[in-house]
UniProtKB/TrEMBL annotation, chain A:
Pfam families: Oxidored_q2 (PF00420). The keyword Transmembrane helix applies. PANTHER family: ANTIPORTER SUBUNIT MNHC2-RELATED. It is found in: Cell membrane. The keyword Cell membrane applies. GO terms for cellular component: plasma membrane. It is a multi-pass membrane protein. Belongs to the CPA3 antiporters (TC 2.A.63) subunit C family. InterPro entries: CPA3_antiporter_subunitC, NUOK/Mnh_C1-like. This is Multisubunit potassium/proton antiporter PhaC subunit. The chain crosses the membrane at residues 6-21, 28-51, 71-97.
Automatic annotation (TrEMBL), chain B:
This is Multisubunit potassium/proton antiporter PhaD subunit. Belongs to the CPA3 antiporters (TC 2.A.63) subunit D family. InterPro entries: CPA3_Na-H_Antiporter_D (IPR050586), NADH_UbQ_OxRdtase (IPR003918), ND/Mrp_TM (IPR001750). The chain crosses the membrane at residues 6-23, 35-53, 65-93, 109-126, 132-150, 162-184, 204-224, 236-258, 278-298, 305-326, 332-353, 365-388, 408-429. The keyword Transferase does not apply. It comes from the Bacteria. The lineage of its organism: Bacteria, Pseudomonadati, Pseudomonadota, Alphaproteobacteria, Rhodobacterales. Keywords: Cell membrane, Membrane, Transmembrane, Transmembrane helix.
Length: 121, 516
């Protein structure tokens, strides 16, 4: 159980790190998604892995329960990373439509496009 | 328990959706509402600063859940000061954005602006590490919108980089929080302070990893070496008023390091003894060097100012890295100063750049209207940023130099600050003479009919008093900071003494018995 969860986190993180080092927006977004899956599983495991245990105390004195707090944290983290990924996709689409390609790195704009140009217009 | 403590979070949180849904077709109404909101925020922040001035640590338990179980907001001198700084800066920036018409160039500027304020104020007030993450996300998601406000190819590409960088940072933040929770079983900052102090040195490996992960996350926000590279591209391509507001965003990172790495992983904690300072100090020296060289090497005005912000963060973190009360006092004074100095330069740059046909490129071009006024504003802003008297940068750097007298810090610290200041002075002086001085000579040689070659060029409008006022207000704030350096330093010293006595903080949050 521990081995499976730990290697899942590790593989997801490794894949995510590899992908966010790519040069194009699409693999980078996928990489960030993988990283957020990895961190969600990781957060879930921080409350220790307990199988078939409810996240509440069953009876007084009977302490077989799984920690409910990481579950709440994961829920928050999932919602936030989901929203963030949506925003990222929109910005990436905007950049793709404006620039014509989805390169992440910016070309040197010193000569052709001063930043104040749109401000002056 | 004063309910006003949560007002800096609730007020923008209520106002922002109202502006977004009800007033989205009426920019005048949105401006009025947003301006009133920010004005109210300033008033609340002043009230909170007075409240915190009594020296107590005021705790607001959300939903009245007791501390380690529920989320708490904590108001002490440090957080009150940061909220006040945010509110005043927001007022200045917002006036500029409305006066220059930046807010009408895209949609939902004011709604995003209020969400941004909500996130920043929340990050300063919260007493819970996971809640800090949530407020970081709130301020980040609003900053993504503000960053790409107005659109344009370069801005969207820079915005994409900024978002990717910060999403990776958020993931790291969650990993750090997960590690901390797995080790200590709590995320409340006061409770963490108790639990981390109980960890024996032999079992400290995990918590040390978590402390350093957290530091990396905050260092991304504070633009510290080696993760400072996102800042120049972002600030240089963001709308100028937004870049001016972002001057406080780097300070959120600095504040978080100050809060977490003194209260939880402070110098007196055996498990992480001295670990933050050891890494922070060289990083700060490198950041300062990169910023100073960047100022010297920049070929455009906006990246140059962005690099000067990087250099000021390096200077600030040098003082933070010492982790002593006096160095923290100096750091806080410099923090206020560099916020206003960065904002003044960005706002000034916006006034000039929008009137130059050359944009922000540092090349000789005919002088624009009001060359003298803009030159004076740039001169004042540059004096402040470089740390020359009479503005507050000089006092701030002097205090930092004084605080870095420790034999292990003095050589690297003093060299970095003094050499860095020299490079920044040279860089800013060069930019100023190209932009404002040489340009008058060019105009004299060029006959006026040259203008006819470019008939589409719009009439250049001189800046009205309302457009110049925010820049002047920022510079006036620097002058006031210099004049009232005595009382301000007294307050900041009390704030840093309070910060370095975590027992009071713990007792206020968890109840007196735990604070022993």
């Amino acid at each position: 159980m521990e081995l499976v969860v730990a290697s899942a986190v590790g593989v997801l993180t490794a894949g995510g790190v590899y992908l966010i080092l790519r040069l194009r927006a699409f693999p980078v977004i996928l990489g960030l998604a993988l990283l957020s899956y990895a961190v969600n599983v990781f957060l879930f495991a921080t409350g220790r892995l307990a199988i078939n245990a409810p996240p509440v105390l069953q009876k007084y004195g009977e302490a077989t329960y799984t920690d409910p707090l990481p579950q709440a944290l994961v829920l928050t983290a999932i919602v936030i990373s989901f929203g963030m990924t949506a925003v990222l996709v929109m910005i990436a689409l905007g950049a793709f439509i404006e620039a014509g390609d989805d390169q992440i790195n910016m070309t040197e704009t010193d000569e052709d496009e001063p930043a104040g140009k749109d401000a002056a217009a | 328990m004063s309910h006003w403590i949560i007002a800096p979070v609730v007020l923008p949180a209520l106002l922002a959706p109202l502006i977004a849904f009800v007033m989205r077709h009426d920019i005048t109404l949105a401006r009025a509402a947003s301006f009133a909101g920010t004005l109210a925020l300033v008033a609340i922040a002043v009230g909170l600063t007075v409240l915190a001035g009594d020296g107590g640590t005021h705790v607001y338990a959300l939903g009245d859940w007791p501390a380690p179980f529920g989320i708490v907001l904590v108001l002490d001198r440090l957080s009150a000061m940061m909220v006040l700084l945010t509110a005043v800066l927001a007022l200045i920036v917002q006036t500029h954005a409305a006066a220059t018409g930046w807010d009408a160039r895209g949609r939902h500027f004011h709604a995003l602006f209020q969400f941004q304020l909500m996130g920043i104020c929340g990050a300063f007030l919260t007493g819970d590490a996971f809640n800090l993450f949530v407020f970081f996300e709130v301020l980040l998601i609003a900053s993504y919108g503000l960053m790409i406000h107005g659109g344009g190819k370069v801005r969207l590409q820079a915005g994409l980089q900024y978002v990717v960088m910060n999403l990776a940072g958020s993931t790291l933040f969650l990993f750090a929080l997960g590690t901390i929770y797995a080790t200590t079983g709590t995320l409340n900052i006061a409770d963490l302070a108790v639990k981390v102090r109980e960890i024996p040195v032999d079992d400290a490996a995990l918590i040390r990893v978590a402390a350093m992960l957290l530091m990396i996350v905050f260092a991304i926000k504070a633009a510290l070496f080696p993760i400072q590279f996102w800042l120049p591209a972002t600030y240089a391509n963001a709308p100028a008023p937004v870049a001016a507001l972002f001057a406080i965003m780097t300070k959120v990172g600095a504040y978080a390091i100050l809060r977490i790495h003194t209260v939880v992983f402070g110098p007196d904690v055996p498990a992480t003894a001295g670990l933050p300072g050891t890494w922070l100090f060289p990083a700060a020296v490198a950041t300062l060097a990169i910023g100073a060289v960047g100022v010297l090497g920049a070929r455009r005005l906006m990246p140059m100012i962005a690099f000067s912000v990087v250099a000021s963060m390096g200077t600030l973190m040098l003082a933070v890295a010492a982790f002593t009360p006096w160095a923290t006092t100096a750091a806080l004074y410099y923090l206020i100063h560099s916020t206003f100095a960065g904002a003044a330069l960005f706002l000034m740059a916006d006034l000039v750049v929008s009137r130059r046909p050359e944009g922000d490129r540092l090349s000789t071009a005919p002088a624009t209207v009001q060359n003298g006024l803009f030159a004076a504003l740039f001169f004042a802003g540059a004096l402040a940023m470089a740390g020359m008297p009479p503005l507050s940068g000089f006092l701030g750097k002097l205090m930092i130099l004084d605080a870095l007298r420790d034999p292990s810090l003095i050589v690297a610290g003093w060299t970095a600050i003094l050499a860095g200041s020299l490079l920044i002075i040279v860089g800013l002086a060069r930019a100023g003479s190209i932009l404002f001085w040489k340009s008058t000579a060019v105009a004299a040689h060029r006959p006026p009919e040259d203008d006819c070659e470019d008939p589409v060029r719009p009439e250049i409008r001189p800046a009205g008093p309302l457009e110049v006022a925010p820049t002047m207000a920022a510079i006036a704030a620097l002058a006031l900071l210099s004049i009232f350096a005595g009382p301000v330093t007294d307050y900041l010293e009390a704030a840093s003494v309070q910060l370095f006595q975590p027992d009071d903080y713990i007792a206020a949050v968890l109840g007196p018995q735990k604070g022993e």
